Amino acid sequence: MTRIIAGVAGGRRLATPPGDSTRPTSERVREALFARLEHLDALQDARVLDLYAGSGALGLEAASRGACAVVLVEKDRRAAAVVQRNVRELGLPDVQVRTESVEKVVAGATGEPFDLVLIDPPYDIDDANLATVLQRLATGWLNQDAVLVVERSSRSPEPVWPADVELIGPRRYGETTVWFAEFVPEGDAA
């Protein structure tokens, strides 16, 4: 069972897509990830982009904990339909679902930049593909000091960060490593 851990929707259940098309983040990892984000003061009133959303658990957790706007991106139509259902049933405001590939979304127009980006791609995603997504995010998608979170298999190498992204540090939880980084455009480093 997947559920929202805390915030206004805390304890509410989330539907998950059928089959093995997605890999939901475990409750233990989500709890630790969001504790770290709260420590970094990265949630309250944040604009959040959840890439490879799956069931939407990460982005919806952010919305429950005080994010002001959340965009969930999921290309699998069955999974995106489940995300839409979760959004409706939770009744959280300012949550949008985009049924498109992450690559297509980040290759397009940026719109208003984000404060937090949650990236939980399938473990089999190519490292070069992930590096391209990260690079595109650094070209207009992020506010100053935006936090990026990348969840990967502990057997995967560290993501290749764009020049304007500084590693905060990884956290390992069994088979999962969560990488935290911050967008600090050139010339803005302390």
Automatic annotation (TrEMBL):
<keyword id="KW-0489">Methyltransferase</keyword>
<dbReference type="InterPro" id="IPR029063">
    <property type="entry name" value="SAM-dependent_MTases_sf"/>
</dbReference>
<dbReference type="InterPro" id="IPR002052">
    <property type="entry name" value="DNA_methylase_N6_adenine_CS"/>
</dbReference>
<keyword id="KW-0808">Transferase</keyword>
<dbReference type="GO" id="GO:0003676">
    <property type="term" value="F:nucleic acid binding"/>
</dbReference>
<dbReference type="Pfam" id="PF03602">
    <property type="entry name" value="Cons_hypoth95"/>
</dbReference>
<dbReference type="InterPro" id="IPR004398">
    <property type="entry name" value="RNA_MeTrfase_RsmD"/>
</dbReference>
<dbReference type="GO" id="GO:0031167">
    <property type="term" value="P:rRNA methylation"/>
</dbReference>
<dbReference type="GO" id="GO:0008168">
    <property type="term" value="F:methyltransferase activity"/>
</dbReference>
<protein>
    <submittedName>
        <fullName>16S rRNA (Guanine966-N2)-methyltransferase</fullName>
    </submittedName>
</protein>
